[in-house]
Amino acid sequence: MGRLFVVNLEGKIYSCKHCGTHLSLCEDIMSKSFHCRNGKAYLFNKVANVTVGATEERMMLTGLHTVADIFCVRCGSNVGWKYETAHEKSQKYKEGKSVLERFKILGPDGSKYWTSHEAYVGGSDADDV
């Protein structure tokens, strides 16, 4: 295995809750209206320090999408997913964008997000943007 290359971001940072690796900046959030099995999730225009897993078709609240899970490059934790292809015309804006699950990351102030008893229990996707 080669040398680990990690990008350090500057500004208000979202990071992996397990190892603290920088994942994205507040300014790269496109929407905070996404949901996953553990509660809230945010759509980001750009993420760093992740590896992309195998693509698969997933039926989500907004239709069929081709997605790939994304993992922290340092510790390997699953932190969300990346939209590869949106099959619905209205959802094309998601292509190439990534979703970080709030439960799996630390906020800019180092805060953790805890799931509530009312956490969404269904497919992962946005209700509205």
From TrEMBL:
Q: Which residues form the Yippee domain?
A: 12-109
Q: What is this protein called?
A: Protein yippee-like
Q: Which domain of life is it from?
A: Eukaryota
| UniProt keyword list | Metal-binding, Zinc
Q: Name one GO molecular function term.
A: metal ion binding
Cross-referenced InterPro entries, in alphabetical order? Yippee, Yippee/Mis18/Cereblon, Yippee_fam
Q: Per the similarity annotation, which family is this? A: Belongs to the yippee family.
Transmembrane spans: none
